[in-house]
Design brief:
With 493 residues, the chain is an alpha+beta fold. The chain folds into three domains: 313 residues, Up-down Bundle (ABC transporter transmembrane region fold); 74 residues, Rossmann fold, CATH 3.40.50; 63 residues, no CATH class. The chain is 67% helix and 6% strand. The radius of gyration is 33 Å and the shape is elongated.
Length: 493
């Protein structure tokens, strides 16, 4: 419940749009109510062979339908804008916050699940905001109005119609837990599949180098088959719920016809009035009550999505600037690791008392076994993590005392797993410094010994490369990454 309350607070910027949508929904629901009364009027006059204003009825029906269509159109536009604006804002907020988080967050969470957080969870919330919000107002207004009309026409017949609703509720309760569990399993399997798919497509070169294409296809088909089974089972249960609900509705209609028919025969109700009554109950009351009952499932799914989104938004960066942090002065290049200890997990040190001094202009190689802490030392130098004890100083300044951006702007990194973006080579290199001129990009490429290779491509620097640069060789990708680092003009590379 606390997630839903917080969600309502998040909707404050959209209160005017939501108010407009609520008014339009209220009007739209009201415009549908006169139709059964018009049918009653026509039926009773036809049975009695009494004259009535045909053109008046004609214009009333056309007028109501036209007004309903216009209001429905305005409502659809308003709701579409509300939903799309909300998704844009919350995705922007989520993605911006993710970018502010420390690297440790991404190492602990599968990429596919984070993608699902931004795409699927936001879409789930939007379903409640648009469809659920509109239906709840419309169904509540319609239900209240219809109950007043129905009791006014015949309170006994209304009680007969309502007699089937305990069965409706029992039917829903019999299936709701299975539907909720099915939704949870589908979400879990979908997130796992998205995560695995992202990893395997990103690592397609490894898959092919080990000739594991068929194995990966079998793995993917196994996951897809599991999703297929879960979705079919969910569909069967959901359909069965609706089929039984329709049978219950038919039972209610039959009871109304039986008792209402007796009232018509006894002359206590006109045929038109009975037809209008059944139209109200069958078309305007059974459906809304069932949808309002089922809102519980939509709210449960939305609550789960909100929990995951708020978990991400509430996660704080572990590496932050001190309140009194200073701008890092232009770096000369002296690097000191002073008795540095570091552990990812408490009690399991990766670095133990590292003592190292690198003078400006020196080129240093860190040599050691896998897992000995070489990459960790580079991560610590960029302050992706903080040391457990000891200190890292650049030009005599503890890196914890300076602002992160001012530190990282002066350090260039070419990581072991080369990452290139799905854009042009020019834009990939310029990522090192977004305001760089074309000539500066060319100079960086020459320094990385890749300029002649790029020039030989059909579109030169405007050649578009696929995800992670799959159209370039491994060495060429490395050189593009080196050019990117050189362009940033780092004081430490």
């Amino acid at each position: 419940m606390k997630n839903l309350i917080r969600f309502l607070k998040e909707l404050r910027p959209y209160r005017r749009t939501m108010f407009l949508a609520a008014v339009l929904t209220f009007v739209s629901a009201g415009l549908g109510l006169p139709m059964p009364l018009i049918i009653q009027y026509i039926t009773d006059h036809l049975i009695k062979r009494e004259p009535f204003p045909l053109w008046g009825v004609f214009f009333a029906i056309v007028g109501i339908s036209a007004a309903s269509g216009l209001v429905g159109y305005a409502l659809a536009v308003t709701i579409t804008y509300l939903g799309q604006r909300f998704m844009y804002d919350i995705r922007r907020k989520l993605y911006s916050h993710m970018q502010s988080l420390s690297i440790g967050f991404f190492e602990k969470h599968q990429t596919g699940k984070l993608m699902s957080n931004i795409i699927n969870d936001v879409a789930t919330i939007n379903q409640l905001l648009t469809g659920g919000f509109v239906n709840m107002i419309s169904d509540t207004v319609t239900l209240a109005a219809v109950l007043v009309i129905a009791f006014y026409k015949s309170w006994v017949l209304t009680l007969v119609a309502l007699s089937v609703f305990p069965i409706y509720i029992l039917n829903y309760l019999a299936f709701v837990n299975k539907l909720k569990e099915g939704s949870r399993q589908i979400r879990h399997e979908r997130d796992v599949m998205l995560g695995d798919l992202q990893e395997k497509l990103a690592g397609v070169a490894v898959v092919k180098s080990y000739a594991k294409e068929r194995y990966e296809v079998r793995q993917f088909l196994g996951q897809t088959r599991e999703l297929l089974v879960l979705n079919v089972r969910q569909g069967v249960i959901g359909t069965l719920l609706w089929v039984i609900a329709e049978v219950i509705g038919a039972l209610g209609t039959a009871l109304m016809l039986w008792y209402g028919g007796r009232l018509v025969i006894l002359g206590r109700m006109s045929p038109g009035s009975l037809i209008a009554f059944i139209s109200y109950i069958g078309g305007y009351m059974y459906g809304p009550i069932l949808r309002l009952i089922q809102m519980n499932d939509m709210i449960a799914r939305t609550n789960a999505a909100l929990e995951r989104i708020f978990y991400t938004l509430d996660t704080k960066p572990t590496i932050l600037d001190k309140p009194d942090a200073i701008e890092m002065p232009p770096i000369t290049g002296k690097v000191e690791f002073d008795n540095v200890w570091f552990e990812y997990e408490p009690g399991q040190p990766v670095l133990k008392g590292i003592q190292l001094t690198v003078e400006p202009g020196e080129m240093v190689a860190l040599v050691g076994q896998s897992g000995s802490g070489k990459t960790t030392m580079v991560n610590l130098l960029q302050r992706n993590y903080d040391v457990t004890s000891g200190a890292i100083r650049i030009d005599g300044i503890d890196i914890r005392d300076v602002k992160l951006k001012s530190l990282r702007r002066q350090i260039g990194v070419v990581i072991q797993e080369t990452i290139l973006f799905n854009t042009t080579i020019m834009e990939n290199i310029r990522y090192g410094r977004l305001d760089a001129t074309d000539e500066e990009v060319y100079e960086a490429a020459r320094a990385a010994n890749i300029h002649h290779v790029i020039e030989a491509l059909p579109n030169g620097y405007e050649t578009r490369i696929g995800e992670e640069g799959v159209k370039l060789s491994g060495g060429e990708k490395q050189r593009v990454a080196i050019a990117r680092a050189i362009l940033s003009n780092p004081r430490i590379l």
